[in-house]
Design a protein that fits this description.
The complex is a heterodimer of chains A (about 325) and B (about 550). By secondary structure, chain A is mostly helical. In chain A, about 65% of the residues lie in helices and about 5% in strands. In chain A, helix 3 packs antiparallel against helix 4. With about 550 residues, chain B is of the alpha+beta class. The chains are: A mainly alpha (about 325), B alpha+beta (about 550).
């Protein structure tokens, strides 16, 4: 009927997403946390007047007109002061917990997002090639994914992390120095590839039998063009659904790697290293574990809930699920 | 169910899942096996009770469980109970434990007038824990292993005639000319190239703990050889545990027979976990609990907690062969940059800041006052340190600061790295497991620039500490002179004073050497340590815990209530 406009799939998805209030609120919380972490240099320079690695072992501060050691003579650090300096207290080395939390968040988010992007890129290529060409290509790629899939991601990641973190990585002429964040990004990116590649492959296997793909083949389009013009746009919703979940998983994996000493190296901070440092002081300075742990939970939780909402908005029939 | 309810259900699932993951990350760590539980009779009155089994913990695997190789206090504490040398220190606390007595030898050595020849005789009828008879020739094998395996203790025996030639030849089974033995009579004659006032002490180290003559020339940590001692190692699973079982056939005058039947030593990396297990009774003895728990232990668990002084020095080595510490100004800057009272807080106040290298209770100690780098209890002099770094043209130099993962060393190393950054060096911590630390930084190929180290006396003589800065002790592997200190004047002084039989007469000269060492900034000493112990409730602490001046807690002295 002339004059009636049918909403596009994208518009329908946005409309569904707007109705997902809790998901939107979670997304907002996540953005807030990211913004806070991005503002770390501002907090460190203008408010706390310190850096994330600077020790203040012998320093004192004045709280309620009383001069207090940042770290007591018996080694117990100060708890949250709720003031500009040492807002969330100090750690055993007298470092400002709030500053380290925010800088640590930058590292955790950087590695999480970068690893998720790497996973997405690699999984997309592998999934498209395996799903479209089938045959030997599919067999080789699928079996390789199965091998990685067989290892629990965290065990594989830690094993690789321990091996590469101290010694560095050499790929041909390219040397990645020991302790570089790139190593953590590559490890996490690599071990989570099967989690995305398999669903993409499954989707491509279905899509390649569809009429529009047949039509493109009939018009003489080559495999690359078909993958780029016909398959990729139809796989994008899957990527949109999975990406936030990948980021959340990557952040958790990074925290675990750093906790075990195979991720971020000192003096840099990450939420994982902060939890690791704080575990030994859990009785005398519980804030050292609670604060980064709480931040990790809040970030991952908000991202997961948001991702759930995005999935329901983009893929309401829930054809695609993250395999565990 | 409405969408909102679905969302909330999903939310709660995610909350639970994520909390579980975060908690599991937080609780993750080396989960030592559960303790064996008490065996033997329950607690009774005071007095030394025989029998029973205990479990103790170490935070990392001892460097080696091979007497020829181990050179850490963790290793020696156990090996002392298993491998008795020709001479020993009594299993007694204080000064009584620092006086040499015969071990496997019948009596103390007869020393020739020129101080170069030592004659001993093996006691008759001795047997190793596997029943093999002990022979006099086993002594040469024991020393061969120390030299052939390039042990950190090699320098203690390099003064024996023919020792250098033995090493150069590279023939493991070759003869060391200066050691003559007679299996028939049990006679052992040792000839030194030069007199050495510390050689008797060297004969009492675990390096010289006798092993059978067919013991292989390789690291036997996984399968330690039999020895003569109150205990024998019956199981060794590196990085998990090892077990000491009482050798009921052992009997030597002056050496305790051991009270307990079995001592299981578990590797539990988390010292926090060790303390929890000790308080729950799953572990019976913990050495050096984490510093952040000291406040609670000193108040709530004071009946189970003990502190005791040690003759030790904690310091940062400065590798004078590797930039930037090959420059005197940079080494001086490192000394000025460190606030020793700040570091003391990282040890829960159990470090006494010092300017000297020799510890206060050591003969030859004379307090350096004034200290060339300022009051050890005072603040750092960052500005002067910065100037020295710039003067040396070392601003921005990359520095790796090495340390072990044992609490609180990572925090100490992070503090030190931060102190170096403040004076213009680009310093980053490099933490490695305690079990491989010595081998890593002691390997010249590593080119370790600076890092944490410490020293507890092997024997009550300043030469023992000064061996760490003696140019003649530098080795390619298992190097103990981590700073590669090779100062002609200091080395000559050490070599000369070592030969003096009357230590008291040359105490002032040792003090002069200590002073030169500090003025030339070959290292950054920061304190002398008090050690701490935590026991479980079933341990009888008062009646049978001997803290030895050299070997810390004498495991053979421990007993149950």
């Amino acid at each position: 009927m002339p004059g009636v406009r049918t909403p596009t799939p994208r518009a329908r998805a946005f409309a569904r997403l707007r109705r997902e209030r809790i998901a939107l609120a979670s997304g907002f919380v996540f953005l807030l946390l990211v913004s806070a972490c991005m503002a770390a240099p501002l907090w460190a320079g203008q408010v706390a007047h310190t850096t994330p690695a600077e020790n203040h072992l012998s320093d004192t501060i004045v709280i309620d007109a009383k001069r207090t050691n940042v770290v007591a003579l018996d080694g117990v650090p100060i708890g949250p002061t709720w003031r500009a300096r040492f807002f969330l207290g100090a750690d055993g080395n007298g470092r400002d917990t709030m500053v380290r939390l925010l800088y640590g968040g930058r590292n955790s988010l950087l590695i999480g997002v970068s690893a998720a992007l790497l996973t997405t890129l690699v999984a997309l290529v592998l999934g498209l090639v395996a799903g479209y060409f089938r045959g030997i290509a599919d067999a080789v790629i699928a079996r390789a994914l199965d091998v990685i899939w067989a290892f629990p991601a965290i065990i594989l990641a830690v094993a690789l992390g321990v091996a590469l973190t101290l010694g560095g990585l050499q790929i041909g002429p390219v040397t990645i120095p020991a302790g570089s964040k790139l190593i953590a990004i590559l490890i996490i990116g690599a071990v989570t590839v099967p989690y995305l590649a398999r669903p993409i492959r499954a989707e491509v296997l279905l899509l390649r039998e569809r009429d529009f793909v047949e039509a493109a083949r009939a018009q003489g389009a080559g495999p690359l063009r078909i993958m780029r013009s016909e398959l990729l746009p139809n796989v994008v919703p899957t990527l949109i659904v999975f990406f936030p979940l990948l980021v959340a998983n990557a952040i958790l994996l990074e925290a675990a790697l750093s906790y075990l000493g195979a991720g971020i190296q000192p003096p840099e901070a990450s939420w994982g290293t902060m939890i690791s440092d704080g575990i030994d002081s859990i009785l005398s300075a519980v804030h050292l574990t609670l604060v980064p742990g709480g931040m990790l939970v809040a970030t991952v939780l908000s991202l997961n809930v948001f991702a759930d909402g995005v999935r329901d908005a983009v893929d309401p029939r829930a054809r695609v699920r993250l395999e565990h | 169910m409405s969408d909102a309810n679905k969302r909330l259900r999903s939310l709660s699932v995610w909350v639970l899942a994520t909390l579980l993951v975060a908690l599991s990350i937080g609780a993750c760590g080396d989960d030592g096996d559960k303790g064996p539980g008490a065996q033997g009779p329950g607690a009774q009155g005071a007095g030394t009770k025989k029998g029973g089994a205990i479990t103790i913990a170490l935070a990392s695997q001892p460097d080696y469980l091979d007497p020829a190789l181990s050179y850490t206090s963790d290793g020696w504490q156990s090996l002392w109970e298993v491998y008795t040398p020709l001479l020993v220190y009594p299993h007694k606390a204080g000064a009584a434990g620092a006086k040499l007595i015969p071990g496997l030898a019948e009596r103390l050595p007869e020393i020739s007038a020129d101080g170069k020849t030592y004659e001993l005789k093996l006691r008759r009828g001795l047997k190793y824990s596997d029943g093999t008879p002990v022979k006099a020739s086993d002594f040469e094998r024991t020393i061969q292993r120390v030299l052939n395996l390039e042990s950190g203790g090699s320098f203690l025996f390099s003064g024996i005639v023919g020792a250098d030639a033995y090493v150069e030849r590279g023939d493991a089974d070759g003869n060391i000319k200066g050691i003559e033995t007679d299996d028939e009579t049990g006679a052992i004659t040792i000839k030194l190239a030069e007199p050495d006032g510390t050689f008797q002490s060297a004969l009492a180290t675990t390096f010289a703990g006798l092993v059978p003559g067919d013991t292989k020339f390789k690291n036997l940590t996984k399968d330690p050889p039999p020895g003569v001692g109150p205990y024998k190692i019956t199981k060794s699973v590196p990085n998990r545990q090892f077990v000491l079982e009482k050798d009921t056939s052992f009997s030597l005058p002056g050496v305790s027979a051991g009270n307990l039947d079995t001592i299981t030593v578990k590797i539990v990396k988390s010292q926090e976990r060790q303390v929890q297990d000790a308080l729950k009774g799953k572990l019976d003895y913990v050495q050096a609990p984490p510093t952040d728990l000291l406040r609670e232990l000193r108040t709530k668990y004071k009946d189970l907690y003990r502190e005791y002084p040690t003759n030790s020095i904690y310091f940062f080595f400065l590798n004078s062969r590797v930039a930037p510490f090959d420059k005197l100004e940079v080494r001086q800057a490192a000394n000025l940059a460190v606030d020793k009272s700040a570091i003391a807080r990282l040890y829960g106040g159990l470090i006494a800041p010092t300017c000297n290298f020799l510890p206060p209770n050591m003969v030859g100690y004379a307090k350096l006052d004034p200290c060339p780098y300022g009051d050890p209890g005072g603040p750092a002099n960052v500005e002067k340190a910065k100037q020295l770094v710039e003067q040396a043209g070392a601003k921005g130099a990359k520095v790796s600061v090495w340390g072990t993962g044992d609490d609180p060393t990572p925090q100490v190393v992070e503090y030190y790295a931060d102190a170096l950054r403040k004076i213009g060096l680009d310093a980053k911590p490099k933490i490695v497991d305690g079990g491989v630390y010595g081998a890593t930084v002691g390997n010249q190929k590593t080119k370790a620039q600076t890092g944490f180290t410490n020293w507890f006396q092997d024997y009550p003589h300043p030469a023992n500490f000064m061996s760490l800065v003696d140019g003649t002790t530098i080795q390619e592997t298992n190097n103990q002179n981590l700073g590669n200190v090779d100062d002609k004047e200091i080395t000559a002084g050490i070599e000369r004073l070592k030969k003096e039989p009357d230590l008291g007469a040359v105490a002032g000269q040792w003090a002069e050497l200590d002073k030169k060492l500090i003025e030339r900034a070959y290292l950054v000493p920061y304190g002398n340590r008090e050690l701490t112990l935590l026991f479980s409730k079933r341990m009888n602490i008062e009646d049978c815990t001997v803290v030895h001046a050299l070997y810390d807690v004498d495991l053979a002295s421990l007993c149950l209530k």
